[in-house]
Amino acid sequence: MRQAGTYSGILCGGISGKTGPHLLPLARIKKIMKRSSGNGGEEVKMISGEAPIVFSKACELFIEELTRRSWIMTVQGKRRTIHKDDVASAVVATDLFDFLVNLVDGSGRVGMASGKGDEGDHDLVVHDQTMSMATRTTSLVPRN
């Protein structure tokens, strides 16, 4: 099978999307898709088998990209732990995440723009060094 790019590895190596390992639970994704579709007035009763798989992969890629950008901010701050300030800085610094800007207040803190939603510290500790440690740059170099 010909790969379309870096992120098309969903069907590579003989693992199909339906039986392959999923980081996000497909049943929950399907439930969210059904619940979210009711906003337009028309309720969806059935969802094809491929839709949750594709949506799961899209979510995985989104989380991976946000984590990489946050890690770059962490390295620039000469730390090894990703803080919510790093996530907020990554959101503000990246045009791709403009739809999340309303979740980050003016000080760069993650939470609701009105100042609500800042209950406690939730930090991600990086245990392995599998991510590239690019410093002083906002562009990502794809790993081979």
Please describe what this structure looks like.
By secondary structure, this protein is an all-alpha fold. It has a single domain, classed as Histone, subunit A (Orthogonal Bundle). It is built from 3 helices and 2 strands. The chain has helices spanning 26-36, 50-76, 84-93; strands at residues 81-82, 124-125. The protein has a two-stranded antiparallel sheet. It is elongated and about 50 Å long. The two termini are 18 Å apart.
Structure, briefly:
Helices cover 33% and strands 3% of the residues. It is an all-alpha fold and 144 residues long. It is found in: Nucleus.
In CATH, the topology is named Histone, subunit A
Specify Rg, calculated over alpha carbons: 18 Å
Mean pLDDT: 70
Query: How many β-strand stretches?
Result: 2
Strand content: under 5%
- The DSSP helix count reads 3
Query: From the coordinates shown, what is the CATH architecture?
Result: Orthogonal Bundle
- Written as H for each helix and E for each strand, in order along the chain, the element string is HHEHE
- Please report the distance between the alpha carbons of the first and last residues: 18 Å
Task: Tell me, briefly, the overall form.
Answer: elongated
Could you say how many structural domains there are in total?
1
